[in-house]
Design goal:
flat, 5 strands
Length: about 110
């Protein structure tokens, strides 16, 4: 049985096999990290990483997750980068309010225990 934090969505619901790109609207397979058309980060990435890092956190393998922003990241992405988050507190990627014309290029990195 998976442990769930209060307010955490049920990640087992994968009723849709596609996820739409937040930047260009192209449908992509659920398990893709980046859009096949424009390269923006897709919602499926957040869901997969949340599931993976939650399990690692609960097993004591990591003490948290940090967001790595690209060198040329927008101010909004830089504002969430570098901090250590518990998995259920990590900001969504793509970062809401990202103003990078080519789309959000942030990623998650585990912080070892």
């Amino acid at each position: 049985m998976a442990v769930r934090y209060p307010g955490m969505r049920d990640l087992s619901d994968r009723s849709s096999d596609e996820v739409r790109c937040p930047k260009c609207g192209r449908p992509n397979p659920w398990d893709r990290t980046y859009c096949m058309r424009c390269g923006s980060v897709l919602e499926g990435y957040y869901r997969r990483e949340l599931e993976r890092y939650t399990q690692a956190y609960l097993r004591g393998r990591i003490r948290g997750v940090r967001v790595q922003a690209a060198a040329d990241a927008c101010p909004r992405c830089r504002s969430v980068a570098g901090k250590i988050y518990k998995p259920h507190e990590m900001p969504r990627i793509p970062v809401e309010g990202c103003t990078k014309p080519t789309g959000c290029r942030c990623c998650y990195l585990p912080v070892p225990s």
